[in-house]
């Protein structure tokens, strides 16, 4: 049905170009217009409610109606709506937030620099890594290794690190100096009879072979999400991170943890790095940092890295990087309040419990004829649909069945996300066991309609 003339939907079709949307299909289909939210639910312009099973974009951790965040923003906006951090200036929220993040870090960290999105945080890291190696007099040590199916953003550099074809096709990407190593998805890529640990060893060996064939003196850093999100919720196999880190240390390669999804409780700890024993040199975070109520991201660096950057800024005269909105006081105030709420409500420990409930409920779908694998940890999970359960053969064309199921879920009042034929769940951290049961009930109905 085409939208009524002059409705929001028809004006959307007339004026908006949507991210991650087939523009031609959108001209016919039009948007789902979301008008407001309450708790874990959002409502459309017809008054229909949806459980937001993806917390927006893996991000609205405190749900859609946390008044304290509204108040924190209003209070800061009245006091000082904008200030910046350029040329020795600062505003109080940015200082307090930096201090808090350093205190929460999984390993000793030294400094924080802010940006506005996950992409900008990771882009900042790429630049700082290059700056660092130039400062150390090793300009050839510039390559960054990421992984097939990794997701690190959509700027020129971060889309190059992202290991998904759709982010590079016809954008003239990737840029030089970006390499991709294998995706550590054991269920999909493990060999017949290979244990999870043996698979992890093979991944680490492949990485080392890549490093040796390129020359370790040319490799600056490795970037990875503790759990891959947009690539299909891929949980690292046992011993994977420990083995990868051994290789990186051996060849003096920096480790960047992209905590944009995993940060702030998603896996049951403050950071995914703690869950998987990752000891990064540099970390990026965004999304749940402010429960996505306002855009803010952060890069945290260790002291070894910071000291080199600091010396180089002294030599050049200034650190020539920063955004107008880096450390925006209103965004930082909202982020600080978000972190305070996490702490007061002991929310990360609660995720360990509700997460176990989510994973148990989803595990029941393992026997469903369309389901190849159910995987997850904490409050993040993926259900991969397959054409053939025994051979793991995927559907062709990829994503058609996942998209169909996604649309059936919307009919049932559930918003989830299909990455190809993997259905992702990443609900707000405030979700209760009862609400998880409701979410699963709606998913089950949508899955039945898909069969
Ligand atoms: N890194 C990861 C792991 C992400 O999942 C995302 C976005 O989903 C990004 C980076 C990019 O963040 P943004 O969309 O805020 O630029």
Automatic annotation (TrEMBL):
SUPFAM superfamilies: PLP-dependent transferases (SSF53383). Keywords: Aminotransferase, Pyridoxal phosphate, Transferase. GO terms for molecular function: transaminase activity. It comes from the Bacteria. Its cofactor is pyridoxal 5'-phosphate. It holds the Pfam family Aminotran_3. Belongs to the class-III pyridoxal-phosphate-dependent aminotransferase family. This is Aspartate aminotransferase family protein. It comes from Kiloniella laminariae.
